[in-house]
Amino acid sequence: QSEKLPSIEDIEKAFNIESVTKEFFEEYKGLFLTLNEELEKIIQNNSKVKSEFETKKVETSNFSKKLLGQIVFLYFLQKKGWLGIERDEKGDFKNWGTGYKDFLRRLFERKYINYNNFFNDILEPLFYEALATDRGKESYYSRFDCKIPFLNGGLFEAIGNYNWEEIDVPLKDELFKTIFDTFDLYNFTIREDEPLEKEVAVDPEMLGKVFENLLEVKDRKSKGAFYTPREIVHYMCQESLINYLDSEINQAEIKLTNEKAKQENLFGFSEPEQLLLSSKGYSEIIKREDLETFIRYGEFAIQNDLAKEQGTKSYNYKMPESIRKNSRLIDEKLENIKICDPAIGSGAFPVGIMTEIVKARNILSTYFPEDKKRTLYNFKRNAIQESIYGVDIDSSSVDIAKLRLWLSLVVDEDDYLIIKPLPNLDYRIVCGNSLLGIEINLFNNGIFSKLESLKEKFRDETRITIKRELKSEIDTLINKITNNNELFDFKLYFSEVFHKKNGFDVVIANPPNVGDKNHKDIFRPIRASKLGKTFYQGQMDLFYFFFHLSLDISKDNSQISFITTNYYLNATGAKKLRKDLKERATIRNLINFNELKIFESAKGQHNIITNFSKKKDDNFTSMNCQTKRKSVLTPEILNKIISRKDLENTDYYLVKQSDLYEGEENYLRCNGKSKIK
After folding, report:
1. How far apart are CA 544 and CA 575, in angstroms?
2. Coil, strand, or helix at residue 505?
3. pLDDT category, 341, cuts 50, 70, 90?
4. Of residues 132 and 17, which shows the higher confidence score?
């Protein structure tokens, strides 16, 4: 502002991350609408483009969203100096990181080559040729006479495989000038910050809000897609990991009998002793409090403990001894965890829990410094390739979720000699309806082994022709197993998880909140599904089915964390849900926010976080809380609630599992006799 000197309040407002965020959303939304309108005009007036899009089932909205996402991705890459690497005085290419930070603008201003149409002559070859083709170690791209990295992954593959080389999509150059003029106003960073460490910049986390804002009001209502605040994501991801480590590590065979039974045979001689009856049960190796310290506060101990490991005698360890002593065991559990978000949306939870895993494994590196392969990049790549799975019914959501995972990997790529190609995520992050499923009648281990082998090859394949061949083989096998049923099914698409672990270790989600009253078209196919036949009862909400689903797709003693409305606690339509939870689950804790506003875009909702295990334990005591606040949730408020320091505004209760449910309707109660003061 120029009319007056800014006050401290003005400066604080200008640098407020939420202010910048909202402004960027509105700008981005305007760009999308303009781009989409222009594309629809082209479809109306250009028969070739119209025919190609119809044949390849390309929707203009998805095309526009992907195009903007591709440009945003390149803004992050040029910030790293990865685009347009030139030669030095000797004629050798300079290192990655030395490229122009305004590469896209320079392309647009014809500083590399001339063009007739920027999209057809520059962007399409850059996307689908330069960034999508492995050109060897040098990565030289002759069209622009510079070095461009090969990225792989699928982001820079033509949507629907439309024929970009022969079909011109004449988007106006002015559109891209507007896009660049807008994006150039913002600082781009690839770091997804924690709630209290926000940088005033555009980061990948913003793409989640962009996804929400791009949904029209009717679509937002019908799909129930509400952006989850990062402080909620942060808490749920940390809590899920703590519960996972607690259940995985503190588990042993518990004897059910003290003496081995003997059995007399028909002739009176004693048979050999039978094995002792036993069952897996809780046996403390690491205190839960120590796991909480490790996951929530471990970063603060790194420098101190690293100095102690290196011999500084005046320092004492900050990390609990049980964590240091069992560091390799913890690391192994984090390396092999399997996580699923069955309503992945923009990917907030997978990115959030990956960030927590990477942070935790990096902390553990302090205690075995001899392993030089323990890098942030390797931790992230392992989590993305081995641990994270997700499904969403909306294809553009799937694209954004993949984009965020790739971006988070790119930030920690620090090999400036060879940039590694991105992993293919087609059979990890999948577009489909999580709630329908299929009947698999073909129980042939040979076919499933072949399917899993092909998926493993596909994941790291970089050659476009081979990728297409592998994808065709995989899809053919899936069709064979399902008798050409194109519906998504967890145990088919993610079969390796069920073969190795019999289900996921962690299921975490913000499932869609959609009532069946005015959405019969959404509920009709679900009613006919396996889930629907078992649990449909009318007066339901769509998210009820996700509770049932999570128990179906997770292994025994798995950990599940959902944020939903709190209506299921006593709603008539949730009777079967409460019965299922009582029979198959143990509620670890309930955080009932009541009138504390969580979702800015969801008016009138009362929300709750439900953390539960796939395990029946009537003796378990849950720690529940109900807030009496009526303000908007902030990181500070949430931190006070979960640390039980909000006694003025929140009631806390210890409730034994057998006391959680009331009457024939099994009403769930957060409160109990043991109130924490």
Report:
1. 10
2. strand
3. very high
4. 132
Q: Per the structure block, which two tokens stand in for 551?
A: 């128990």
CA 77 – CA 67 distance, rounded (Å) = 15
Residue with tokens 């500084």: 312
Judge whether residue 443 has pLDDT over 60: no
- Residues 6 or more apart whose Cβ sits within 8 Å of residue 279: 253, 254, 256
Q: What are phi and psi for residue 505, nearest 5 degrees?
A: -75, -35
- Which amino acid makes up residue 410? V
> Contact 397/61 with Cβ under 8 angstroms?
no
pTM: 0.85
Distance separating alpha carbons of residues 148 and 83, to the nearest angstrom: 5
- Does residue 350 contact residue 506 with C-beta atoms inside 8 Å? no
Q: In what order do the strands lie in the sheet with 504-509?
A: 429-431, 388-392, 339-341, 504-509, 554-565, 607-613, 586-594, 621-627, 650-656, 674-676
Q: Find the helix packing angle between 348-364 and 288-297, rounded to 10°.
A: 100
**Model pLDDT for residues 479-533, shown as the tens digit of each residue:** 887 767 778 889 888 989 998 999 999 999 999 888 887 788 888 989 988 898 9
Report residue 245 as tokens.
């480590």
Query: Tokens at residue 46, please?
Result: 């250009």
57-97 residue pLDDT tens: 998 988 998 898 899 889 888 888 889 988 888 888 888 88
In the chain, the largest separation of any two C-alpha atoms, in whole Å, equals 107
- CA distances in angstroms from 631 to 227, 233, 380, 551, 563, listed in the order given: 18, 19, 36, 34, 18
Which secondary-structure segment (H or E) carries 608? strand 607-613
Give the integer Cα–Cα distance in Å for 141 and 149: 9
Q: What residues pair up with 388 in beta bridges, in sequence order?
A: 339
What per-residue string of b and e applies to 451-462 under the rule 16 or more CB within 10 Å gives b?
bbebbeebbebb
Closest residue by Cα to residue 208 from 405, 66, 401: 401
Polymer length of the chain: 677
Under the banding of pLDDT at 50, 70 and 90, the label for residue 563 is very high
Q: For 99-113, how does the pLDDT look when each residue is reduced to its tens digit (9 = 90+)?
A: 899 999 999 999 999
Residues 671, 655: contact at Cβ < 8 Å? yes
**Which amino acid does the sequence have at 182?**
T
Q: What's residue 275's pLDDT?
A: 60
CB 114 within 8 A of CB 129: no
